Amino acid sequence: SVRVDNRGCEVEDLVARSGQGTLRMTYKQAGFEPDSPLKLTADVRHLDLDRSLLSLLPQSLHDQWYKYHPAGTVDVDVKLSYDGRKWHPDVAVRCLNVAFTYHKFPYQLDHGRGTLDLKDDRIKLNLTAYSGSQPVRLEAEVSNPFDGPTGWFKAEGDEIQLDKSLFAALPEKSAEVVRALDPRGTVNFYVRIWREKPHEAMHEHLI
Q1: pTM (2 decimals)?
Q2: How far is CA 54 from the centre of its chain?
Q3: Under a CB-based contact definition with an 8 Å cutoff, are residues 193 and 146 in contact?
Q4: What are the CA-CA distances from residue 142 to residues 27, 68, 134, 151, 190 (Å)?
Q5: Contact between residue 9 and residue 2 where contact means Cβ atoms under 8 Å apart
Q6: Which stretches within the chain are classed as H helix?
Q7: Could you read off the pLDDT of 17-41 as tens digits, one per residue?
């Protein structure tokens, strides 16, 4: 249902499909000026994370995409408003089955389930993914995520298999040392990374 008049435009109960994914959306804009306020509410179910999404994302999110190379299926709830000066996003992502690889440590985790929320310029992450059959727990809370981010990230896992894919993810010099030792078996790990002030160096704690 679409209404357009001198006061603005309104879209109600827009429903669409893309592959297995479904979209339901409402939209309201007061006026037609560049600073006209607007509100958008949408829910997306069973959205496939593939490269076709990149054309819809701003450049800042393109950069994040290539850092993590996500793939899989998510549900997304979006509340987006614009007051004429600033955007106010409220986005909740529920990961149903997601794989990803961080570009600085290219070790893939699979079958990720959990939540990623963006609200009030703050991202919160609570996710469990798998290395083989072993769970890896990921948590984060980051403020100003796209401009001078501050906050923390932690990851921990138990009985992670020492295998070729893990060794291949290591920096070359570290990998040479590890291969020379020829380690076998499993390891437990805990890592926490944080930054208290914008643009300062990252702090790291690894066990």
Answers
A1: 0.88
A2: 13
A3: no
A4: 29, 16, 26, 4, 19
A5: yes
A6: 59-68, 164-169, 172-181
A7: 988 899 999 999 999 999 999 999 9
